[in-house]
Amino acid sequence: MAVVYRARDEFLRREVAVKVLHHQLPTETESRARLQREAQAVAKLNHDGILQVFDYSGDDAESSYIVTEFIDGQTLKQFLVGRKIPVPEVGALIVIEVGTALEHAHSVGIIHRDVKPENVMVRKDGVIKLMDFGVAQVVDLERMTVTGQILGSPAYMAPEVLDGKPLDFRSDIFSLGVMLYQMATGVLPFAGKNPHEVLKRIAEGRFADPRTVSSRVSDQLARVITRSLARNPADRYPRLGPMLDDLRGYVGDAGMSNVHEDLRQYLTAPEEYEKGLEHRLAAALVARGQHEQAAGKSARALELWNRALVLEPENQTVLAELRRLERGERLRRRMIFGIVLGVLVALGTGTFALWRRAIQTTRTETGTQVATNVSPREKYPQAPARPAIALVPPATKPPAAHKPTAPASSHVQRESKRGPSPIERPEPREDDRSALSHKDKDRDKGKEEAPQQVTLTLGPRPAKVEVWMDGKKRFDFGPAENRITVPWDGPHVLEFRNDSCCNRKEVTVGPQVYRPPGDHLYINLDPKPGRLTVELEPSRPDISILLREVGDGRQNPWRTRAQPGERIPVPFDVGDEMRKSLEIVVFLENKTLTERVNITAGESRQITIRLDE
After folding, report:
1. What's this model's pTM, rounded to 2 decimal places?
2. Which CATH class is domain 73-275?
3. Which of 76, 199, 269, 288 is 20 to 30 A removed from 121 (C-alpha atoms)?
């Protein structure tokens, strides 16, 4: 398509680059006119990330050419040969820099139409330059062919190019999304054995989820990639600004708030920059997660900590935070169990008190028959001790010598002051002591012997779960099956599953491992986020949508803004109900539309709002 020469401007004494179009193209009047318009348009751009244009050959010249600044460096494609981008965050830095330059071009109405690594220069000092504006248009990208050849890189072309439809800024967003996918995973989203197979995949909009290609791609980054690669331009970002904001937030969570400086360090000294990189990113993600957790955003904190664990699987800070959350959840369950147990104990204590009072009343009545002179105040259940002497048989013990005794009333009064008489609890006989001793030994022996099996009463939330033990399904939890018998011979793994709404939960039980208090095991499964897509009819990509949670009584209900067609994750925290009610608000020029929708954890829904109703 063009040949680039290194030259010297003798008048201004500077090195320049001269790009000369192939000799087939200058003979076409339309191509010359397009080249002139593009050269004039690019000359209007003034951005550090865009290659400067110094001169144009003119439409009367025999050979059409453009004179630009000379870049002492290599293309991004050459830079990446034999080098793997260490983490997706670094790839996002590259895309942010390219996208920032592209956004400036869009602001003055320039569409690049050929964004790809070959058209990005990496200067030796770590500065990125976007080049080749408009060249693809010169060769008529809408038809894609000149003299029977496919020009450019098909893998980066937007589907509307293949459909022959008019191109706009969203076509560049698609190409930038292909670059982002490539930088994050190391492979292209649309690949094939030949260009025609690649073009077919692009036309169909089929590509692998980046999270399945690389485990280091987070949900947050995958959302940006998926939206930028939408088959329908109306489903993509309407402009580059929101896409770049999402990427800046993504790298900012990892401590890369100074995009330009971080990228400069990587491009100038990659090996040095990569030393300790994963640890630095993990530390920043952990700190950010702790900040979100303190703000009550548990789902957001867990997402950040998950990114940190991908980088450092043994990060002790994250593991400690997760254990703390787990302990908090167990404490909450134990508090609930304690409250229930307290109520049961209170009920049992009340029953025992009534029974004891009845027994004491019976004893009081017996004492009254013997001590008839006792006053009503002295008939209280604590004082019938002395008459119990009459219960000892005379033959067992000879009568004691006669001693003067005080009146019954005075004796009972003295006993009531010092508490119940020991005669109420006579010393056990030898045979009684022997029996008690055997009972104590049996009880101690029972404590020493561990049970052969333990039956646990289960309380999962949600209740609709499958119960597995040691990798085998045992039953579906329900009113008829809510207990599981566990052999108490070692550790056993209990697993609770409801893949439609929640992440699986495992608990290891066994001797010396864990036995739930009261043999009641309460489990809360972590709910998956819901996925909601809001479409507008007719399409209005320039309108933003507000989503907010309603009807839960929270002080800070969840809310977010999104673009039409965006797949919006709706977070569910541990302990939440499995269903949320959302209000969708669309702000138009002359009115506001609202609509309510319910969504459950793990559910994907699409809602269409008609703007003309």
Report:
1. 0.54
2. mainly alpha
3. 199
What would the CATH number be for the domain defined by 450-524?
2.60.40
Residue 259 near residue 96, CB atoms below 8 Å: yes
**Token digits of residue 375:** 């006053």
How far apart are alpha carbons 193 and 512 in whole angstroms? 58
Write the DSSP assignment of 498-540 as a string of letters: -TTTB--EEEEEBTTTB--GGGEEEEEPPBPPEEEEEEEES--
Paired tokens of 262: 């971080």
The three-state DSSP-derived secondary structure of 118-164 is HHEEEECCCCEEECCCCHHHHCCCCCCEECCEECCCHHHCCHHHHHC
- Rounded to 5 degrees, φ, ψ at 369 are -70, -30
Asked if residue 443 lies in contact with residue 508, where contact means CB atoms within 8 angstroms, the answer is no
pLDDT digits (tens, 9 = 90+) for 332-380: 555 555 555 555 555 555 555 555 565 555 554 444 444 444 444 444 4
- Distance (Å, whole) CA 398 – CA 414: 26
Tens-digit pLDDT profile for residues 27-40: 456 666 666 766 77
> Following CA atoms 221, 223, 228, 229 in sequence, which dihedral angle do they give, to the nearest 10 degrees?
100
Q: What is the Cα Rg of the chain in Å? A: 40
The overall longest dimension of the chain from CA atoms, in Å, is: 150
103, 153 in Cβ contact below 8 A? no
pLDDT of residue 65: 86
Give me the pLDDT at residue 324, please.
80
Give which of 330, 334, 325, 336 is closest to 507, Cα–Cα.
330
Phi/psi region, residue 539 (left: phi>0; alpha: psi -120 to 50; beta: rest), is: beta
Do residues 560 and 590 make contact, with C-beta atoms less than 8 angstroms apart? no
Q: Cβ(524)–Cβ(461) under 8 Å?
A: yes
Closest by CA position to 549, among listed 607, 597, 496: 597
Burial class (CB in 10 A: 0-12, 13-18, 19+), 201: middle
Long-range contacts of 473-477 (CB under 8 A, 24+ apart): none
Cα separation, 309 vs 497, in Å, equals 23
State how beta strands 128-130 and 120-123 pair: antiparallel
- Angle (CA) 501-505-508 rounded to 5° is 165
* Residue type at 428 in one-letter notation: P
Assigned CATH class of 530-610: mainly beta
* 450-524 matches 530-610 in fold: yes
- How do the domains of the chain map onto residue ranges? 73-275, 279-322, 450-524, 530-610
Region for 136 from its dihedrals, namely left if φ exceeds 0, alpha if ψ lies in -120 to 50, beta otherwise: alpha
Question: Vertex 452, ends 446 and 458: CA angle to 5°?
Answer: 110
